[in-house]
Amino acid sequence: DLTLHDVWGLPAATKPLVSIASWSKVSSISETCTSKDSLERLAKFMRSVLDKADLSNKAAAAELGALIDLIHGHPDWPVGVLTHADTLRVWLYYAAKTNKPEVWSTAYGRVEGGLSTFLRDLNTFPGDGVIPNNLGAIFFDAGFLDDALALFLVAADMSLPFKEGVVANIAAVRQMTAAWQNYEAEVQSVRNLIQGGKNLFAIRNLYSLALPLSLQEHLAVSRAGAIGCLDKLQTRKKLKVTIAPSQLSKSKLHVCYVSSDMLTQHAVAQSVRMLPEFHSAGGRVRVSVIGRSPAVAEAVRKDSKDAGLADAEFYDGDQWNWDELAEKVNTMKCAVIMDLNAQTGRESMASWFRKPSPVIVHYLGFPSTTGADYVDYLIGDRIVTPPDLRHGYSEHLLFMPHTFQVTSHAYRRPHPWPGSADFAESEHDREALRRAAGMPTVGPLMCNFNQIFKLSPSLFDMWVNIAKDVPKSSIVMLRYPPEAEPNLRLYMRQRDMNASQLHFLMKAPLSDHLSRFSFCSIFLDNTQYNAGTTCTDSLWSGVPVVTLPGEKHASRHSASMLRAVDPDLAAMTVARTPEDYVFLASKLSNVTPTRAHSLLRRTIMQSEHESDASDLKLQSESLLWDARTWTGHLEQSFRMMLDMSLQKFKGHVIAHA
Fold this sequence. Notes:
By secondary structure, the protein is an alpha/beta fold.
């Protein structure tokens, strides 16, 4: 049997992906590879991807179909076991999707003559690193990070059109798994790539937000992404806005939300859930929602009311290409486009280059500038996007009066606070819930339920120092991803800390997620890339968030939200220096409940509601929980932005309370 170590010369310490046997013999899984469950999940993922592939090239589709039939028709094929036959299928899928001749030739070269030729040729695998790099990207997106890293390392030693992409991919995997052995060097490699000014499009922009890069460096990365994604367009011809200015200024405004997450269970969707309903209740805006993923259409099909669609019109735009999206929006005569994705997956961004609507707004999904001069506005406030840092944004800024963040916590069903059996409102409740979750029942429990990629060695050192300062304390995090857990435990031991003080929980449904917060003492925020919706979840659960804002949009989320809850709360939780962060967190953890806990509880308890949004009443000192008022400020801003656009004038917009 051959392994990836044999075939592609992987370092001996790298675990092989699979073992390979001859065609007449079933491939077996190497003892050192990922668990069988993992491989079966990956095999299932690959098959589902291929089953949904839109292969416009009929010859390619026929070739792929024949190969699939050959594999699954073999009498010894073990269902659920991943072999290099599956890997080959993914190569063909990638080739079909990219439609690049060089990828096609490589893929067909592996197919020509049958699978035996493919297996025989593995010993002389060509030195072209494009295939393992792109295959690694598929594994990365599927969440199989060890295998992705193995393939990226292979590609790094091969011939590539440019090395920058695989270097950035390796850095992203190690960032996600807290493999910090070469952290400073890898950050510097990304910084060198930015300074070099070439192939910045290869940098995974969302993950780079967690790196200690400057505002200007992030702007450069975003600009490269905004330009690079335009290759998806078939034409760059601008569209003519067909709505007469007089009609726009008098009629009900048509706003189109475009997202791959809205109406689903995604964190962004949960934040904006009430917007369609409040737009409808206000009577000043007509809403359309264009879904850019199968998950959105599925949520609407299952229960549009539960998803939060309200009276909005829904369009399943998952199969539209970028030109079709621009043309459809233009035909719909939308006055304002609200893009909730931007650079997260660039599902729609290229479409906006064709200017299908007078105003294009970027909001929430990607917490930074788009870098696109064809996107008009970014929604912020004076804390998350300070006026003196506006040079770090390609868009004009919309300054919301209280906070950029909209929330829907006060209107959820069932109400998660207070009085719920699965919420800790006393020491007895807290002890019982901790025990049920496998957490220590004694001592402060400091939590962070963000993805691991937002963490850095310097921040984790701060957490270790807090744990040393606070007797009997523990840290609880999400196992997100699981590959990071052993690295973080090792890191703690290297700093003379007991690894048993570090606890991990799996991702959970929203109700369980909120319940977990309630048995924690404080939330330790990330510094480079703050918690977003997770911060609001913590605050809604009565758990203070300690944060240290920087310059970037992503590093200032929590400070904005804390001030929106109460300026006094912000004074107790928003640090000015790393030392201040450690001091504030230690102080809040040592004795609970503190004044900060009591203040949070008061604002939450005042958020009274009824089920019908038309009769919804919210009496709260905290504007963070008041989505109705927030929506009104946004609608006022839509009109201001549109009026400025019609007058051919662009500038920053200030929404008035």
